[in-house]
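Quick one, tokens below. Sequence please?
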């Protein structure tokens, strides 16, 4: 039964796919979103961009290891992937913090809801840059790594 599930899972969400990234991203994003929304309740005077950036950065480090283990593969060393990911994380941290700031000014009463599309849009950009530049994922290489 477990083997059947693993095969089905690999077929429906193969390594490197946006679907697999979304599954891991749902976990990472849920932790981020909970921390961010709770922090806005606990610190109502704090700038929403600072809170967003703080938790984006913290959960981004965790997300790197989740995606390394689950989404992509480990054919590239940690010594390569972690430094290569830093510009992606910094760029997405700055960009998503700027866009949430703009959204908070435009839609102040719906900021919690505006955080969701902001997170999703940046997530797709992160998946693309991680797949191409950081993990340099190729389905063929992934299959070879798992058959040995």
């Amino acid at each position: 039964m477990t083997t059947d599930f693993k095969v089905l899972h690999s077929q429906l969400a193969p390594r490197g796919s946006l679907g697999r990234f979304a599954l891991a991203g749902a976990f990472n994003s849920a932790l981020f979103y909970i921390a961010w929304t709770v922090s806005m309740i606990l610190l109502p005077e704090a700038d929403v961009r600072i809170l967003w950036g703080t938790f984006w950065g913290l959960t981004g480090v965790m997300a790197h290891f989740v995606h390394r283990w689950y989404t992509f593969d480990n054919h590239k060393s940690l010594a390569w992937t972690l430094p290569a990911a830093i510009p992606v994380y910094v760029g997405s941290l700055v960009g998503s913090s700027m866009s949430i700031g703009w959204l908070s000014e435009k839609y102040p009463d719906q900021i919690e809801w505006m955080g969701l599309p902001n997170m999703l849009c940046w997530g797709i950009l992160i998946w693309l840059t991680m797949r191409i530049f950081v993990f340099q994922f190729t389905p063929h290489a992934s299959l070879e790594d798992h058959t040995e």
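Helices lie at 2-12, 18-42, 48-71, 78-106, 111-134, 139-147. Residues 18 and 127 are 7 Å apart (CA to CA).
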